[in-house]
Structure prediction request, 397 residues.
Amino acid sequence: MTTPAHIAMFSIAAHGHVNPSLEVIRELVARGHRVTYAIPPVFAEKVAETGAEPKLWNSTLPSPDDDPEAWGSTLLDNVEPFLDDAIQALPQLIAAYEGDEPDLVLQDITSYPARVLAHRWGVPAISLSPNLVAWEGYEEEVAEPMWEEPKKTERGRAYYAKFHNWLEENGITLPPDPFAGRPARSLVLIPKALQPHADRVDESVYTFVGACQGDRTAEGDWQRPAAEKVVLVSLGSSFTKQPAFYRECVKAFGELPGWHLVLQIGRHVDPAELGDVPTNVEVLSWVPQLAVLRQADLFVTHAGAGGSQEGLATATPMIAVPQAVDQFGNADMLQALGVARHLPTEEATAEALRTAALALVDDPEVARRLKDLQAEMAQEGGTRRAADLIEAELPEK
Prediction:
């Protein structure tokens, strides 16, 4: 029996970074641990529902409801806000945990202050990765080529100098890249099947526990209508401002006899932008995704880590239309696994979507591969295994 401990989780206010951890947090609370969760106020209620205590701090990052364009378009546009946010968050978090230091730190990959705080407190830190992790050779094959040009610019050099100085001020000797990308211990909350070069991942550091999905009934239910085929279209929670793409989906599936389309458009598109919508098309700003996927025949997805693994967990064939960051790699992985077609947004016309859909949904080989992957994922252990591994890292009392 593990002695109850104080475990502190740190994340940012983004669905794709908070949601994957919630079932693990709920399980740790159920095992008698006191779990605090450092999070901006917009996610306080969601965190509190797990039984964890929210420790609130104010973030300077764009919020989940902001226009995705607020993130900018270049690599430096994307990374600078995280460093600036970390620098201003650290004093808030030091104050929030004054006299209430945890026994162990859990950190989302975006939470730079968490690793600084673990160092400051002298406690173990475990990264919870909601997407792919670095393999042996990752730096040479991906990171260095990606950073080669930005590092030559004054802005890029200033970013690295600022990061290095901040780490040094906090007693950390690691350079910025390994600090951010090479944790001492990590639980990977995706199936190993979605990890590129999985055979080159150091399993003494990274353990794949797969999806930690839990019971999603609180998100609401969805009833399948009388239809031969049901297709869900969702680009997740961030990159949803794609009215032209949604119009192509309506054209592709709204005119297919016997098909029903569930179209999630997010907060940044007005349904009026879609034009005339047939009666077999359900347009919603948000859907209980897992509930729909359990009853769907096809998933048109942006191939984020969460959506990709939900498609695999429910054995649903996918059309991957990636929008940003790791989604392009996930789309390629899903296609290579034989369970999806990768369609770039600019090629995702009504005709291309319909052709891919009809090829996927009745292919027995696609169905077989999905069932095999579903079984493999079930063996990875999910929530309970993640909680077991976290408890194994707790210091002896």
The CA atoms of residues 191 and 377 lie 6 Å apart. The radius of gyration is 21 Å.
